[in-house]
Amino acid sequence: MNTALLQKLIDIRVLVAVMLVAVLGFFAILDRDETRGNFRQPPREPDVFTVTPEGDQVVRLSAITVTFERPPAERYGPRIVTLYPLISGEYAWLSERTILFQPDYPGLLRGFEYTIEVPAQPDAGHVQPFSRSFTTAGKLEVVSVIPAPNDVEVPEGVQVLVQFSRSVAPLTLLSEQPTDQAVVFDPPLPGHGEWLNTSLYRFVPELGALEPNTTYEARVPAEQSSEPDGVLAQDYVWTFQTYGPALVRVTPGRDTQFVGPDQAVVLEFNQAMDRASVESGFRLTREGAEVLGSFSWSEDSRVATFDPSGNLALSTLYDARVPTGLRGANGGVTANEQRITFETVGPPSIVSTSPNQGSTTAERFGVFFRFSS
After folding, report:
1. What residues contact 321, with CB distance under 8 A and at least 6 apart?
2. pLDDT tens across 165-194, in order?
3. Contacts of 266 (CB under 8 A, 6+ apart)
4. What is residue 286's DSSP assignment?
5. CA dihedral 137, 139, 140, 142 (to 10 degrees)
6. What is the β-pairing status of strands 338-344 and 256-259?
7. What is the pTM of this model?
């Protein structure tokens, strides 16, 4: 015999012997009772008919096992146990009474319901057909959304986020991301969407596209990918309401001093307003007395300018009041009252000089005057 071939055979036998010793030693360690210093017997097969798995969080790589009371005469796996929906896999007898069905990799579909069926095997003590359903873990769900369901006063620059319970989009380059929109809106909302990662989707509305004081219905379609387990149990639907009318800026601002006598009051809103509602609700008062004047508006009805009929009094405190309940042009009313006080400039006067009156220690370089306004 060839010497090299003989040496290879010897090496292989030695390797097998070493592996066998290692495996036996591993199981000996597992079975050893550390507290008593002896070995436990391996677990016995149940004496009754049993089927595994069961429940609603079964791992997708789980195998299906059936143990009979007695060894069945039938030994052909597909006639012993069947899994529906049908899936490819391998059958193996673990003992005379226990058969195993191992689905091919990557295993069962995530979040699916399967049914195990075992026909009657009277000779094995199993006289009635058996059927049991279980559900695998990893069911695709929408975990959270922004804006949240039933949110109100959603601002104009909002970005819509949808977080799924696990990966949906394939891990790929941004340029090769799926183009199907993962969330749709009613009324329609123009914008663009993208996957921030494989389970987080973002939709960015176009600038100015979000209508104020509007209830939007957002819908995540059930089918999120072409994979069989990339499907929600049903469409995920929620609603949110966008921002209502509100005052965002007033000129003069709150507690402003030295306001000129010909100053107008400018009200800037976050959306188009009902002009009659604003004009009838706004009040400018001086020591409790109403100041008369007229309104002018920007073309988009977002900015109202109140011009007093005459000049404002000097050195006087004025109070501007913008009440709640002012109507927006597209519905809704203001929710908060705004009160702004400002003080007008006084008559011009000299407050101080440098040098002071009668000073005998004046500096050589110049005379300084400080005026009241």
Report:
1. 282, 283, 284, 285, 337, 338, 339
2. 998 887 665 555 566 789 999 999 999 999
3. 249, 250, 251, 303, 304, 305, 306
4. E
5. -100
6. parallel
7. 0.68
